[in-house]
């Protein structure tokens, strides 16, 4: 059966990994810096940090924004649990916003209606690589003076108005480089900041709050005059993970191109199936087609049918507002409709749909 996800690994990494293993330099160093530069060029941004995991990227982000217990953050429940669980870890109050049931994207009007004086951020998930209403949500952030975070956990390489995710005018963007993402570093994440001061602050928080330019004295001993003033994490990406990430970036355009070719073929064939249609795409955007998203009138019948045909169809995620950890089991009409109908089909680089009857 053709899987819905598959980890990618370039063939040319083995020799480089062996050299790193015996180099005496395993933690963040030249390959860590190289991966950040490679990402910066690909995305078209200047302030990017690689992080040891997506979860750690989220924790660094929340610390950078100084979001604390009982602060409110508006988010979509239609996303990966990994996106929203850090809010519970931090003790934030998650205010769920409804979504467009035809797209899976945050509903701008509902987000606006839920902004209060306690709202500290808007967390804008781009479900399964399909970009939401970026400009409209960003405008809300500007209007109310609150930061907007693009959750690109599944949206690396997605495009809006010829610009890649991470370079869409949003205050902060967060990425996952976990095994089934593209690129994958086996485990990893990334943060992009539009604000230089927040970027420099996050750089310290990523590394135990340390200012590395002052941390060592003239004989390379720890400098007693270097104070640690902010909280921090041990969240630097290793040389091995960084090297793998750079190798993957060399082939990322080719891989996403295969996703797009498969999506074009799904577009031409999906009308052969009754009661199922592709989800709507936001104007002027191009998904990375991490999956091919559809809406079915009978979700589980469609899943079974496609699996019988050899395609591992799946609902991928479940709406997070059902979980008691968030203490907000609100009923949202758009969320319920979308989740009851969404079916993802395999669309990745690991197969060529044009060769399949």
Verbal overview:
- The chain is an alpha/beta fold and 357 residues long.
- The chain has two domains: 13-249, Aspartate Aminotransferase, domain 2 (3-Layer(aba) Sandwich); 252-355, Alpha-Beta Complex (Aspartate Aminotransferase, domain 1).
- Helix content is 33%, strand content 15%.
- The protein is built from eleven helices and 13 strands.
- The chain has helices at 13-21, 30-43, 54-64, 81-90, 108-113, 134-144, 196-205, 239-249, 252-269, 299-308, 333-341; strands at residues 48-51, 72-75, 93-96, 119-125, 148-152, 159-160, 163-164, 172-176, 189-193, 276-278, 285-286, 292-296, 342-345.
- Strands 1-9-8-5-4-2-3 form a seven-stranded mixed beta sheet, with helices on both faces.
- Strand 6 (159-160) and strand 7 (163-164) form a beta hairpin.
- The protein is globular and about 75 Å long.
Descriptive labels:
357 residues; Aspartate Aminotransferase, domain 2; three-stranded antiparallel beta sheet
Could you give a quick summary of the protein structure above?
This protein has two domains: 13-249, Type I PLP-dependent aspartate aminotransferase-like (Major domain) (Aspartate Aminotransferase, domain 2, 3-Layer(aba) Sandwich); 252-355, Aspartate Aminotransferase, domain 1 (Alpha-Beta Complex), CATH 3.90.1150.10.
